[in-house]
Amino acid sequence: MSGHSKWSTIKRKKGALDAKRSKMFSKVIKEITVAVKEGGSDIESNPRLRLAVSNAKGVNMPKDNVARAIKKASEKGGGNYTEVNYEGYAAHGIGVFVECATDNLQRTVSNVRSYFNKYNGSLGKNGSLSFVFDRKGIFIFPQSDIDLEELELELIDAGAEDIEAEEGMISVTTAMEDFGTMMKKLEELNIEPESANLERIPVNTETLDVESAKRVMKLIDVIEDDDDVQNVYHNLELTEELLEALDE
User: Fold this and answer.
1) pTM summary value
2) Residue 174's domain spans which residues?
3) Angle (nearest 5°) at CA 17 between 232 and 164
4) Residues 196 and 209 in one domain
5) pLDDT tens per residue across span 118-145
6) DSSP annotation string for 18-86
7) What are residue 231's DSSP bridge partners?
8) Tens digits of residue pLDDT in 197-243
9) Which helix or strand (DSSP H or E) is residue 241 part of?
10) Do residues 127 and 208 both lie within one domain?
11) Are residues 121 and 232 in the same domain?
12) 8-state DSSP, 7
């Protein structure tokens, strides 16, 4: 995936984030709930909860909302979500990986399958896209007054594979196993990411004509709008022409 396309993806995600703030709050609350159920409500001793709270700050969720979410998740019966992934192909062979957190597996798989069917795609078996995506740590934070050359040296020491600066934002990519090390390094440098996630990055991307690509993106958007869906990844190349067409 080219750096330019990756940055375009990041910008598009940020635009979607601004337009769907309440949906983002819902996703973060689910992240917090799963983290608390998995490792307890102590932020200091629960790395996954610490990450979820950091991401809550990144979408400007009020502290009171975060505290309530942690308290509710700590209570007996305070929301039980199962994490489940679905893999399939959109039209024209575009790989689509869907991450969900749900309290009703039957509803979720039924909905996801219906989306693929409606838009001429097909749901596949788990593992069918293992060769299409690599799992990477992706960190995004404002550049502010940081000396980029000095910062790059620090981040490379912490496992950065790729560092991009554009439009006042810095994007850092790490191997999955270096995710925790990078989180600690950013804490040492007093840098608070707007988002820090393990994401599925395509090994290679596929380019389609604009009309075909728009139909694929319609499927992606419909899946993303489902309340049970946390993240959707695909290997469609987001060309400048396509991004302009999507913004029309």
Assistant:
1) 0.85
2) 133-202
3) 80
4) no
5) 999 999 999 999 999 999 999 999 988 8
6) HHTHHHHHHHHHHHHHHHHHHH-S-TTT-HHHHHHHHHHHHTT--HHHHHHHHHHHHSTTS---EEEEE
7) 99
8) 999 999 999 999 999 999 999 999 999 999 999 999 999 999 889 88
9) helix 240-247
10) yes
11) yes
12) H
